[in-house]
Amino acid sequence: MRLIFVNRLLFIILLLQIKILSQNYFVEQLEVADSLFKSQNYFDAITEYKRLLFFDSSNQFRFYSNYQIGLCYKNGAKYSDAIRYFVLAEINSTNNEELFESKIQQARTNILRRTTTRAEKILSEMENDKRFDQHKTEIKYWRGWSFIFSDKWEDAHQIFSEISETNLAQICLNTHDKLYSVDFAKYSSMIVPGLGQFYTGEYLSGLLSLAWNVFSGYLTINAFNQERILDGVITANLLWFRFYRGNFQNAEKFAEEKNIRITNEALFYLQNEFNGIKP
Amino acid sequence: MLRFFLTILFCVTAVAQNNPLKSDENRKLFADYLYCQQDYLRAAEEYESLSKSRLSDTILYKIGKSYSIIGNTDKALNYFSSIQSNSLLLKNAILEEARIFYLTEDSYSLNKIVNDVDTSSTELKKILIAFYLKTDLLDKANNYLFLFNDDDIIRLKRLYERRKNPAYKSETVAGILSAIIPGSGKIYTEKYGDGITAFILTGIFSYLAYDNFKHSHQFRAYLFSGLAAGYYLGNIYGSVASAQIFNAKVDFNFLNDLSEFLSSKNYFINEIDFCK
Q1: ipTM over 0.85
Q2: B19 and A51: CB-CB below 8 Å?
């Protein structure tokens, strides 16, 4: 009787041992993967998280592993892979917090990938989802960043002002104020050749544009005045219009190039000097 | 019974000292999964970490294939060459090596593999012919083209003919034609729009220059003369450049078609599906 009891007890201990050990292996595996992640060894971290996913038949670590793999890919600038794993994390989320984290990471990675339309769509879905009501401010924060990456600095300023992110709002406002109007540069050069170049600070180019247009215009008018119609038509088409068209295209290009430089400076500042949370 | 349970308990506890997820058996399972997921670098590294006794020819081949796909050709060659001579995968491994030599343009190694390692393989000879066509060694290609006959050889013969008699345009002829009739050099190089435009513009500017000189409008006469001369000389230069571009395009299209043919034939390798 006593022997049977001892046998049963040992059998139960054995089963528990097997169960606990298998759990321990997964926890141990997770710790290995996490330590690799912390030491920024993302390639090996992904391997270990994938190993955990492959052997974890209980699906206990499914959300966490997919989420961490997503973060590894994101940190390694492999944004498309990162989004794929954040979507898998979303599918395997077990509560609203996990769901929120995986979705917001999708939006943040889309911002970094410059697929801001997709990011804004995800953020809009989240904003309309009642489960995320307590995260409205955070959603707006990332929408602001999405506006920054899609060059909508004024919209970004407005949204950051709404959620009292004064520092970011000020940076966006300053950048917006520095930007040149591409349309103004183009159309002003159509009215007065060279004016758009002057507006963007390219004075020499503006003067040259004005001179070429005046010169070729003079030749054209002069030819018509002397009743040399073919000379006039050819000069107008092949000289004057060529310089006229080049003039306003040039003004437009200058404004676009200057705007790219201004936005790059702002993004460089945000990347290196800004201390808040970034995508 | 008591002894039995105690033994099992001891074994389970002893096994627990090593992580079974990284046992050879599980590593292989995981590597197979990664290979089928096309995560080739990780798959290769997992296979490589197996103990030596586990490295079967299939695994060596899969490691070589993984490295070949991700472009690490040195490691791929290393693994393909380590496959044993009695293995069923040997033929595929040799062809994989030949593919790498073809792509890296290693003429010496490709010749060696065809003439020393497997002299009876028609697939290897086809890769060698393709290599000679790619590197424009037509006499050498010709030596192999008539050794045997099948659909692939017919295709390769057609490509040989294209390589031997390319539809090049002469740069000199293009330049001379444009010097005689502005734009005709461009038309010769099949740039019809450019040719007609150049002809009309040079003609108009020349006429305007002549007419302005005739009527003593000196400034406009010199202006149009300058423009006419610019268009005329520019067109001669442009026609020569156009012939060069045309010839480069002929070569590019040939190499593209050759590459497409080899890709469609998978370099004559009978691919094994390990993920069924």
Answers
A1: no
A2: no
User: What backbone phi and psi angles, to 5 degrees, belong to A181?
Assistant: -85, 115
> Does residue B195 sit in the same domain as residue B256?
yes
- In chain A, whose CA is at the least distance from the CA of B209? A231
Domain span at residue B182 reads 171-260
The closest CB to that of A231, out of B19, B22, B208, belongs to: B208
Question: Among all residues of chain B, which has the CA nearest to that of A6?
Answer: B2
What is the average pLDDT value for chain B, to the nearest integer? Answer: 91
Same domain, B211 and B186: yes
In a domain, residue B12? The reply is no
* Residue B46 near residue B39 (C-beta atoms within 8 A): no
**pLDDT tens figures, A5-23:** 666 655 565 555 555 555 6
Q: Total structural domains in chain B?
A: 3
Best probe of the A interface among B10, B21, B36, B197, by most A CBs < 10 A, is: B21
Residues 6+ apart with CB under 8 A from B30: A50, A51, A54, A55, B21, B46
Final residue of a domain: which of B115, B147, B165? B165
CATH number of A22-152: 1.25.40.10
